[in-house]
Amino acid sequence: MQCPGLPSGVHLRRRRSCRVSLGNRPSVPTGQGRPSPNPHRDCFAMMSAIQPPPHRGRLTAGMLLGLAFLAGAAQADDGASIEAGREASQSCAACHGAQGNSPTPAFPSLAGQPARYLVSQLKAYRGGKRENAIMNAQAANLSDQQIRDLAAYYAAQRREVADPADAGSESGAILYAHGREGVPACAACHGVGGHGNRPAGFPALRGLPSAYVVQSLTDFRDGKRAFGQGGLMLPIAAELSDEDIQALAAHIATLD
After folding, report:
1. Against a cut of 0.85, is the pTM above it?
2. Please, what are the averages of pLDDT over each run of 10 residues along the chain (256 residues)?
3. Does the structural domain 170-252 have CATH classification 3.30.70.1130?
4. Where are the alpha helices (DSSP H) in 34-114?
5. Contact between residue 68 and residue 201 where contact means Cβ atoms under 8 Å apart
6. Which phi-psi region, left, alpha or beta, contains residue 191 (left: φ > 0; alpha: ψ -120 to 50)?
7. Domain 82-155 is classified in which CATH homologous superfamily?
């Protein structure tokens, strides 16, 4: 069965083990032929097994997922109105496109992003914790209700990737799928195909412009996005070189 709250491609076999479709990686037994009483525990153990041993004090993929759930399971769209969000989104369409699918690589698509993630980003823009002249001005006068409505609307839209890149980066693909010592696999939280993880609030990466990915990872590395769940990315991005960031952006551009 699908491991609760984990990316697509990670499954818990009913009787024996967790398995992950990220290449030839080892399975982690869950018991003597019996269903696991705690699939979250076994999936976290599996996540640790597919990562190289981290240095002391560094975050593993399992730890990241655990922290995300411990941070609170409150849904970002509580009391939200998708219809009100649709009406409010009219002022966003010029940059982010109709229904949240951006027509230009200058701006990221919002369609299909987890509502929880969108709420945190809009509040960060409103409060100045995340800096962008356009978005700071756009979010400045949004109420909490309007933010919830917008997040619910965009989360309900289908994400479209019109023109994925044909060629990516081999090193970026390996880093994304398998990680390395000190760097958990991106796929563990954002999904093998970059679809994100809605229950945990991890954003979708497929369809994001390369320049946006590069800027985001650089900002994480520089400590500029330490708010909310973004704080989980800081120790990971700190281990990335400029070449790593460019390679990851090139690979993410191929995800469709």
Report:
1. no
2. 45 36 37 36 38 46 52 55 97 95 94 96 96 96 98 97 86 97 96 95 95 96 88 95 98 94
3. no
4. 39-49, 61-70, 82-88, 93-96
5. yes
6. left
7. Cytochrome c-like domain (1.10.760.10)
